[in-house]
DNA sequence: ACTATTTAAATCGCGTGCGATATAATTTTC
DNA sequence: GAAAATTATATCGCACGCGATTTAAATAGT
């Protein structure tokens, strides 16, 4: 019983951890062209989809803590890709909006997904298998992620 | 076509990244009891399975770079859990061995997998689904990981 | 109204994670 | 067998990622 559990977890959790880093590495050459990191890319994905959101909106979508998001956004602001400003309705909230430069980056990033699939093609998983993998991970994400914030987590 | 790719990758890569961090968070309360971090736990897993290996052995098993492993091992050494010493055969190599304290930690860690499964039980994935998830991730890990080192990656 | 609680961001400290580079020991090449 | 290439590890700098704490603003409780 305990042995079975032990085997299960040793085999599962490490691959998630390792694959996550390998995927980030796969993105790197494409993101280097834009001068941004993978977490910065994720934050921009959120903003490209819906501009003018709060720090907390981004934090929840990416399942990150404030102390990770705040410095990340400051770097994006220093790069001139976003602007941060206090909300006038609620002065605790900080609104994040894309600059023209940040918006312009979207079209330059448009080819990344396509090229990334090329990098991942050596895995020889079929599209169906990838979809199934994503479906299972989404279920884990929803149940584990909702323990911290019951909000919608979708990046789709 | 390009749109299909875009949807596929936006939906897949982020869940891997988020789930990886959520799993690390799930380990944290158990690892806190031992005073170690998740990457340190992984390094110890390698050593508990096979003692007296080189830095490179650990680096390859964990799919990490030297500049991550070296400081990590130094911290484990400072904690008194391992010892590092130059190989006499090849003085470039550094051999890593468990101290009695490091070896004693294994039995204290023995209940972690079981308890972790409890933390993950809210995901309501069946054992078969977990196994399938792991199988797919292992295929990704093998093909992506082998681009950097053709060695065996198994932690099992 | 006024204090207590909650909420939104920010700050601090520390441990990864990695690109780039350095250093030293071994192996290869000619 | 000496120079060149390779291998094993370490060092440096920077960007996360997060626990813990802080600050300020809004809301709740009385």
TrEMBL record, chains A, B:
<dbReference type="InterPro" id="IPR055166">
    <property type="entry name" value="Transc_reg_Sar_Rot_HTH"/>
</dbReference>
<keyword id="KW-0963">Cytoplasm</keyword>
<dbReference type="Pfam" id="PF22381">
    <property type="entry name" value="Staph_reg_Sar_Rot"/>
</dbReference>
<dbReference type="GO" id="GO:0005737">
    <property type="term" value="C:cytoplasm"/>
</dbReference>
<protein>
    <submittedName>
        <fullName>MarR family transcriptional regulator</fullName>
    </submittedName>
</protein>
<keyword id="KW-0805">Transcription regulation</keyword>
<feature type="domain" description="HTH marR-type">
    <location>
        <begin position="9"/>
        <end position="142"/>
    </location>
</feature>
<keyword id="KW-0804">Transcription</keyword>
<dbReference type="GO" id="GO:0003677">
    <property type="term" value="F:DNA binding"/>
</dbReference>
<dbReference type="InterPro" id="IPR036390">
    <property type="entry name" value="WH_DNA-bd_sf"/>
</dbReference>
<keyword id="KW-0238">DNA-binding</keyword>
<dbReference type="GO" id="GO:0003700">
    <property type="term" value="F:DNA-binding transcription factor activity"/>
</dbReference>
<dbReference type="InterPro" id="IPR039422">
    <property type="entry name" value="MarR/SlyA-like"/>
</dbReference>
<dbReference type="GO" id="GO:0006950">
    <property type="term" value="P:response to stress"/>
</dbReference>
<dbReference type="InterPro" id="IPR036388">
    <property type="entry name" value="WH-like_DNA-bd_sf"/>
</dbReference>
<dbReference type="InterPro" id="IPR000835">
    <property type="entry name" value="HTH_MarR-typ"/>
</dbReference>
């Amino acid at each position: 019983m305990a042995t079975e559990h032990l085997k299960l977890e040793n085999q599962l959790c490490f691959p998630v951890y390792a694959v996550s880093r390998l995927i980030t590495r796969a993105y790197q050459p494409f993101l280097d062209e834009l001068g941004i990191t993978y977490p910065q890319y994720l934050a921009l994905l959120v903003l490209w989809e819906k501009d003018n959101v709060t720090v907390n909106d981004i934090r929840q979508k990416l399942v990150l803590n404030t102390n990770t998001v705040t410095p990340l956004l400051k770097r994006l602001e220093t790069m001139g890709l976003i602007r941060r400003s206090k909300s006038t309705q609620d002065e605790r909230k900080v609104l994040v909006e894309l600059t023209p430069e940040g918006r312009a980056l979207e079209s330059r990033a448009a080819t990344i997904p396509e090229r990334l699939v090329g990098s991942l093609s050596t895995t020889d998983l079929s599209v169906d298998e990838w979809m199934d993998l994503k479906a299972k991970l989404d279920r884990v994400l929803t149940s584990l992620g909702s323990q911290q914030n019951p909000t919608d987590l979708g990046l789709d």
